[in-house]
Write a structure and sequence with these properties.
Elements (H helix, E strand, L loop, with lengths): L2 E8 L2 E8 L9 E4 L8 H5 L2 H7 L3 E5 L14 H14 L7 E6 L3 H11 L5 E5 L4 H4 L6 H4 L5 E7 L8 H7 L4 E5 L6 H4 L1 H15 L2
Helix pairs in contact: 3-4
Length: 210
């Protein structure tokens, strides 16, 4: 599966992305993958997620967020992240397609603020031990998402990740949320059990999106 290294201009930020090209029998859905604090876009290539998505007929785009990976520069603060995500999706030309966001850990703070105004544009949210739930959910940021019956949400957590208890917050805000636990895995469960993580991701997408 061919993976292209490219740059897109997001406002003033030259943003690096890895894109799976030449997807066989593309199903029309695009999966945009963000990353955790200690990782970058290449993480999804190393653990085989980009290839797995492409082989399933999904266009996959992994993003180096500001302050990380090849994008470099300065990390954005909480108030800037939702605006960056909106401009990123415009620059990638994916807003008119069925869209899935995969947001591990820190990158959950990008999508939580964005969902408040854009939940109707999202087909599915794969929240991998997302950070920010305790901060954002009390502000009612998921209220609009809860009113979108077609929005599918899954929380994926490692068995040994203390943050798995936070899923109760997600489930309360979005009662239709599903929960997946990766056995014997820590916070970055996709590193500890990449094959199982990829299978669970594809199972969710097969059942709820495709």
């Amino acid at each position: 599966m061919e993976v292209a290294s490219e740059f897109v201009q997001v406002g003033s930020i030259k943003t690096h992305v890895l894109t799976v090209n030449n997807v066989p029998a593309w199903k029309g859905t695009t999966v945009v993958l963000l990353h955790g604090q200690a990782f970058d876009a290449a993480t999804w290539q190393r653990v085989g997620t980009l290839a797995a998505l492409g082989e399933r007929g999904l266009r996959a785009i992994a993003v180096d967020l500001p302050g990380h990976g090849v994008t470099g520069g300065t990390a954005l603060n909480g108030g800037e992240r939702a605006a960056f995500l909106e401009e990123l999706l415009k620059a990638l030309h994916v807003k008119q397609q069925p869209l899935v966001l995969v947001t591990p850990s820190m990158s959950g703070t990008y999508v939580l603020g964005w969902l408040a105004d854009h939940a109707a544009e999202l087909k599915a949210w794969v929240a991998v031990a997302p950070a920010g739930l305790k901060q954002w959910i009390p502000k009612g940021v998921l209220e609009s998402a809860s009113k979108q019956p077609k929005l599918k949400v899954v929380g994926i957590y490692g068995e040994h990740d203390a943050m798995k208890a936070d899923f109760a917050l997600l489930e309360e805000a979005l009662p239709r949320s599903q929960f997946v636990m990766i056995p014997n895995a820590r916070h970055a469960c996709y590193l500890d059990a990449p094959d199982l993580f990829n299978r669970e991701l594809l199972r969710f997408l097969d059942n709820e999106v495709l």
